[in-house]
Amino acid sequence: MTVSIVRFGGSNCDRDAERALTHLGVDSQIVWHEDGLPTDTTGVVLPGGFSYGDYLRAGAMAAQSPIIDEVESLAAEGVPVLGVCNGAQIGCESGLTEGAFTTNESARFQCEHVFLRVERDDTPWTDAYDEGDVIEIPIAHGEGRYEIDADRLDTLEAENRVLFRYCDENGDVTDAANPNGSRHNVAGVLGDRETVAVMMPHPERATIPHVGMTDGKGVLRAFE
Amino acid sequence: MSLPESDRELIVDALGREPTAAESALFENLWSEHCAYRSSRPLLSAFESEGESVVVGPGDDAAVVEVPTADESDDLYLTLGVESHNHPSYVDPFDGAATGVGGIVRDTLSMGAYPIALADSLYFGSFEDEHSKYLMDGVVEGISHYGNCIGVPTVTGSADFHPDYEGNPLVNVACVGRLPPENLITAVAQRPGNKLVLVGNATGRDGLGGASFASEDLDEDAETEDRPAVQVGDPYAEKLLIEANEVLVDEDLVESARDLGAAGLGGASSELVAKGGLGAAIDLDRVHQREPNMSPLEILLAESQERMCYEIRPEHVDRVAEVADRFDLGCSVIGEVTEGNYVCTYTDDAGERETVVDVDAEFLGEGAPMNDLESVAPETPPTSLPDPAPDLTEAFEAVVASPNTASKRWIYRQYDHEVGVRTSLGPGDDSAVLALPEVSPPDADAAGDAPDEPVGLAISAGAAPHWTASDPVAGAKAVALENATNLAAKGASPIAAVDCLNGGNPEKPDVYGGFSGIVDGLASMCETLSVPVVGGNVSLYNDSVSGPIPPTPTLAMIGSRPGVDVPTASVDAEGELLLIDADDAGPAESLGGSEYLAQFGGTAPGPDLPTDPSARLDAITAVAREPTTRAVHDISQGGLAVALAELCTPDVGLSVSLPEPTTDAGAAGVLFAEGPGRVLVQSTDPTAVREIVGNAGRVRSLGHPTDDGILSITADDASFEYTMAEIRSLRSTIIDALE
């Protein structure tokens, strides 16, 4: 019974995810991608970072790693899988989730706190919140602009698979509150199943009280 | 640049023969100013580097200090180091700054530590100058690219502008590492017969002669001519090296280590064995290479990045190779530690073996003669104030909107300052505060209130070019006090500091005099404050066609406190606003080195310092730890004017009445003087603050927070006010120019 946090070369939020889960009392371990997933894996985190230096395209190389096949199999069985930041990019590159995260509108790396509106509260990731809740969580990315073609975006919206949207502190989804130019202010989306989610903001950076904000712990509660 | 004739004669004498080409090049680099500190070492003995918290002082890759904790069995060390990457950042701002980050991080690794924080202090020419903005854009992007990728948060720093950095910007990078005591390793080779193993990137022809390039003035055509001397960084490889190094150290496989920096493999390997009083036998052809047909000299001196040299017991070599392979890092056993000379051989494709270096390692490392340079002591500037004095509101707007005092958010937003989940207070405040949850503070048991309260680690880094340009000695004292005040304002007591001393061409007597001045000033204030200066870096020849830089003593200081619940530099709507400033020496109203004089012309001595800086800091620290203290902000560049503007938030303003001026500068002296050791405090219990401060300073009430987001100031017989939107617009100088 353990959450596997997959470390690729260049992952750098793996330890943070482990600390945050430990803080919540969730058993977890960091797994080197070449070693494969342990058989007792009950959840998977694809953590943030710069896997393979983001040298080809953010997340593109890691998505080709054999361990991703194992992650996909578990995802299909309903095991919770969360991709955060670079992990979200890997999730989209590997087809776990739709769309792509690409260069910010500013063309610069942005590390700042943003507000997210919870779009639905009937998923394991948002069970701790109510629909419409506004939570404050940090972002730290240079390639976080969610892109997807118009038809697929319509489908995504129709299927209610947008999990979080960037908003202002009152919960209004505005252009001004969109930090990176994401389509429809999308900050996080669900995969085919509700147990698979990716998001650019970092819930693990908003879980342990000593960093000053704890709004993100509800997301990680999915692993409890 | 080639080996000076007098050095060559010394070397011929010592060797009893002419040096080989490789030896000449090695001596040229290792005896350069950059590596041998020939002009600065005679001055550096001024620093007090010992103290009860000091584990490893100056001379190794990074210093090691002990964190004060509750329980002696609960030990934690930190490493602290600082490095300059000035010349490379002028020639190629992106790669120059990026590799500066890489270098100081590897200095952290070679002590056995894991890097947990970076702080960057940047200095550029006039902000109005397009080239300065181009350099800043590239430097910030380089730091962002490298630091973010390796997952080490950039938590604080500084950025300053002064016309004399026009032809020679400065990039000073400090790194803090976390080191469990049992993991400590040093750069002192241990035992003959141990293997020397090179781990990391393959060696190419990049960065040839970087050390000697860093030891001369920048020519007019440096941007094109010196590009081959700038290294190119690969943060992905550095990240792998950080992880591999941790495994090697955790498994106790490493006897000693040194990272490859200036003068490449030749520098690192010879210094390692020299420190152990030993020698080495190295086969250069066994180095894993990236390019074909490299000459032995190129292999020896290339400054290819992301490489570490380890001393490994023979029985551990296979395991080291396995660890390197797991992280996709190259690994070669290049030779071994010996009791003889430092010897490098090269076997060519035809099997011909040639000895290219055979010298005494200690002579190579320590034999460079010191320079005895002529020096002209700087004079204290006279008082000459702008006449007529500018209107107070005009001055307020000019000072608050100056790029030196304006918001630096455009810079730090590009740095990941939160990775590592330790950052409790990030950039933009007086100092950064990180949580060290692995240890408890010394008085945790006594207080008994928060059993799992972490140690709070405060970090401050910076200098103030206008202060030291105006008066090197007083300016450097003020820089030391200012960094310490940044810690005190967040309730932290200093543990130690490292310095990065930047100067112009020391062969110019006035430049050398100014440089000596900052050394003296920094050393004396650090001693007064009982802050050991445990290491540092010297960068001279920061001189170009546009002249020497201001002598620039960047100081990076760390301190600790119980917990991370600190008063920030933003007010809320309760209590009273207090100023802790004057003591027996009178209020600090001298405008020396101020942004005000930089804007409107004039000179003055100073900045003013308290008579007993240590007592003042203790008082501020105690005030900052009071639960009734809501906000604390130190007063430094831009004076009270900037500190007040920074304290306000969109919801909360301040209604302030300034004290009567006591000097000829009038209200300008009160509003714009920059003497450090002063703070603004928002407290709901002003009586308690007065009791704590006692004789260490005067506590004066300036007014109170308001709920309208308006800053209103009454000074002398003038009165003016600004809305938060106006303040924000004034303070957005940098972002407005670069977005």
TrEMBL record, chain A:
A Pfam family the protein falls into: GATase_5
Assigned GO CC terms: cytoplasm
Keyword field contains rRNA processing: no
Gene3D superfamilies per the UniProt record, alphabetical: 3.40.50.880
Active site positions: 85, 202, 204
Subcellular location: Cytoplasm
Associated pathway: Purine metabolism; IMP biosynthesis via de novo pathway; 5-amino-1-(5-phospho-D-ribosyl)imidazole from N(2)-formyl-N(1)-(5-phospho-D-ribosyl)glycinamide: step 1/2
Principal place of residence: cytoplasm
Molecular-function GO terms, alphabetical: ATP binding; glutaminase activity; phosphoribosylformylglycinamidine synthase activity
UniProt cross-references to SMART domains, sorted A to Z: GATase_5 (SM01211)
Parts forming coiled coils: none
EC number: 6.3.5.3, 3.5.1.2
CDD domains: GATase1_FGAR_AT
Keyword Isomerase found: no
Annotated GO biological process: 'de novo' IMP biosynthetic process
UniProt keyword annotations, A-Z: ATP-binding, Cytoplasm, Glutamine amidotransferase, Hydrolase, Ligase, Nucleotide-binding, Purine biosynthesis
Catalytic activity from the UniProt record: N(2)-formyl-N(1)-(5-phospho-beta-D-ribosyl)glycinamide + L-glutamine + ATP + H2O = 2-formamido-N(1)-(5-O-phospho-beta-D-ribosyl)acetamidine + L-glutamate + ADP + phosphate + H(+); L-glutamine + H2O = L-glutamate + NH4(+)
Subunit organization: Part of the FGAM synthase complex composed of 1 PurL, 1 PurQ and 2 PurS subunits.
Function: Part of the phosphoribosylformylglycinamidine synthase complex involved in the purines biosynthetic pathway. Catalyzes the ATP-dependent conversion of formylglycinamide ribonucleotide (FGAR) and glutamine to yield formylglycinamidine ribonucleotide (FGAM) and glutamate. The FGAM synthase complex is composed of three subunits. PurQ produces an ammonia molecule by converting glutamine to glutamate. PurL transfers the ammonia molecule to FGAR to form FGAM in an ATP-dependent manner.
Protein name: Phosphoribosylformylglycinamidine synthase subunit PurQ
Organism: Halovivax asiaticus JCM 14624
UniProtKB/TrEMBL annotation, chain B:
Sites where the protein binds Mg(2+) 2: 107, 259
Domain PurM-like N-terminal: 59-178, 452-559
Record-listed Mg(2+) 1 binding positions: 83, 537
Keywords, comma-separated and alphabetical: ATP-binding, Cytoplasm, Ligase, Magnesium, Metal-binding, Nucleotide-binding, Purine biosynthesis
Domain Phosphoribosylformylglycinamidine synthase linker: 2-37
GO BP: 'de novo' IMP biosynthetic process
Binding site residues for ATP: 37, 499, 536
Enzyme active site: 34, 85 (proton acceptor)
GO annotations of cellular component type: cytoplasm
A Pfam match: AIRS
Annotated signal sequence range: none
Molecular function terms from GO: ATP binding; magnesium ion binding; phosphoribosylformylglycinamidine synthase activity
Record's subunit section: Monomer. Part of the FGAM synthase complex composed of 1 PurL, 1 PurQ and 2 PurS subunits.
NCBIfam families recorded: FGAM_synth_II, PRK01213.1
Known role: Part of the phosphoribosylformylglycinamidine synthase complex involved in the purines biosynthetic pathway. Catalyzes the ATP-dependent conversion of formylglycinamide ribonucleotide (FGAR) and glutamine to yield formylglycinamidine ribonucleotide (FGAM) and glutamate. The FGAM synthase complex is composed of three subunits. PurQ produces an ammonia molecule by converting glutamine to glutamate. PurL transfers the ammonia molecule to FGAR to form FGAM in an ATP-dependent manner.
Name this polypeptide is given: Phosphoribosylformylglycinamidine synthase subunit PurL
Protein species of origin: Halovivax asiaticus JCM 14624
Protein encoded by which gene: purL
